[in-house]
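Lab notebook, bench 4. Still working through the backlog of constructs that have no structural model yet. Next entry is a single chain of 210 residues. Request: give me the structure tokens for it.
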Amino acid sequence: MTDPKGFEQEREKPGEYLALGGFKASYGEYATSSIRMKDALPIMAWRNTQISALRQKEPLTREQQLRYFEEVVGKQFSEKRPRQVLLRFTLQGELIGYGGLVHVDWENSRAEASFLLETERARDVSLYQEECRIFMAFLQQCAFTVLGLNKITTEAYAHREFHLQALDSSGFIREGILRQHVQVDGTWVDAIVSSCLNSEFEGQGRDQQE
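Model written out:
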């Protein structure tokens, strides 16, 4: 796969999040931009079928999801320092996933990265890893170049080694293990904490140019 750091960044039209200043990015037929309110229900369906990969405990209802988007997501579009920034992930204009930066700590210039792919696509491990890497490249561009953060972290469950491998190849460094951190289907599972620094992201760009 061609390295996704070569994607084109577009800034022609303002996006939903004021903080992003109209950020959009593309790589081939893949693209990312600010989440849209109409994305709420597809995302709900994916989350409900992939609960074991999430911190979510119970299936979401339509009412809960629409209320969350209205009362939490939409209200942060106009904030200069939102607590989270969600991005839609598309292929040929069709929504195939989403993710973003959550628990943003502006004072300490860090945030937690998240990613969820459409359920059927996520079942294909090779496809998942490729598309996860593309989205993480978009997200790193957003976090470091647009928002100027210093660090982004992830917390992934050990039973999803394929996801951890995708993070590894996206420039994330495994920092540590939170032992028996969550229960998944009645079994205790470790959580793996990984991170990527702004300086490491910039270093990757310089290495590709040399």
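Notes after review: Residues 5-15 have pLDDT under 50 and may be disordered. The chain has one domain: 4-152. Flag for follow-up if needed.
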